[in-house]
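Sample entry (552 residues):
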Amino acid sequence: MPATAPSDAGVTVLRVTDIEPYEHNPRQSANPLFETIKASIRQRGMDAPLKVTRRPGAAHYVVAAGGNTRLLAQLQLWQETADRRFETVPVVIKAWCSESDVLAGHLIENEQRSDLTFWDKAQGVVALKAALEQERAAALSLRQWESALLDLGLQIGKDVLSTYLFAVERLAPLGPVMATLSRHDVRDQLQPRFRCWARLAQRFGLGEAALYAHTLDPVLRRFAESYQTTRSFDATELAQQGELALAQTLQMAVPALQSLLALLDQSPELALDALRARGALALADGSNSTVPAVTSRRYRQANGIHHADAVSPGDSRFGRSTGGGGGGGARRGDGRSAFHCLPGRQAPSGGGRTGRTGRRARRGCPGAAGLRAPLTVSPGDSHRTEGDAGTATDLATDPVDALQPVLLAFAEATHCADCLHWHAGLPFRFYVEVPTLPLDLNPARPQRHAGWWLLAFLSGQLDPDVAGLLPDDSAWRRAVVPVDEDTEGQVPLLIPAALGGQLAADALVAWLTRPPDVAGERAWQCLQRARQVWAARLHAAPPDDPPASSVA
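Predicted structure, serialized as tokens:
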């Protein structure tokens, strides 16, 4: 039959090379019966015809509903033997309807054979939702999605669809581990826990996007890297690692976190202050003793953790600086504040001071070991001031720990959370990376430009000495601290090309002093928390140590 044959007909034949496997086939793993199927076709030929279709204007047909394995087996036989028995295949040509119709056909075929993994089916069903939404030019609710699938011949309830959507949207960083997940793992273990964590993080002013980007996604990636295919997937272990990481992000012990989670599950309407007050009481009288604390050596080692509060939020690879090392980046050797330095000044050879020792080096990093604030500030609470006394409900004791959730909230409000990175040894243990797209490219997000620059000013990374402490693969470090003639002088080019020009002082002042908006309020919170860090550092400095720069 010629390749230009129109549509729906009876059984006919096509050259095997005129047909291609369906590229969006839900089944991603290789068929373990491939060799058996190939041997059967070698001996008997293809018994049942393939159902094929063709997109408008396409030269080749595609498999319309199952049969990709049989097609590939016969194509291999034709290429290997050139036997004319394998040159053509029997087919039924189906008129092209839509992408969603073909994808649904493959899902139904695989469903009938019951050979799809949970992950393959989740991806296929969510991809079908995207195809339906594109064809209808409208988003589908869970109920509409369920109804649309039923019209296509797929009966899947809303609860199952919700589980599929959660797995595809939130667990993808697990990578190859996803192939071993079951619906029970996701529905009964991971999904309810992750959603409860997101509700609690929201109480602390940490949005869901930032929670995943800086806390949960790194946990998933680390779990995937350490996962051994020789053992079965342990959803409980993954949940415990995520719980430990969340406790570090919110600067509290795991039992305190578990107490708050239990209270929030019982009383979803509780505000943060009430949660923390009742959580402190529960811890005091031991009423949460039935909740196991995940603080064993096994889980700390799995996350690279050596102490309950020794990790910057979202990145367990970096512990607190203990002085020396990268701790001296906050102040320059000539006594001027790091925030006075603008890009373009070349750092000394070697990319920054890494051998500074003594009291001033210990004071250079706000997270240096042994430094604690004279007051306690809880993440997400913008009403506490420097004069407030600590209470039994204060769950954070390190002022840098209290600063980090506020930084996350500000970065999210200004749409630049994708540029925010944690790194120990820096003045506030964070920096902002060069964005992949220019800051001013999207006119719908004008605060992205101001947000990036304010965070860059605050981090101290404009000083080449501080930039030299960034990771070697940092684009900002390579631009500010050139390693050869090819990279020298990159900052003047980088600023207009990727950073939208420098932030003008009058624009910054106008933004911070005009009637408040969400981003402006969070900017002030960042500055206030940063001031508390410096105050705590001065309070902890030895008497004979000279005072820090007033600008700092």
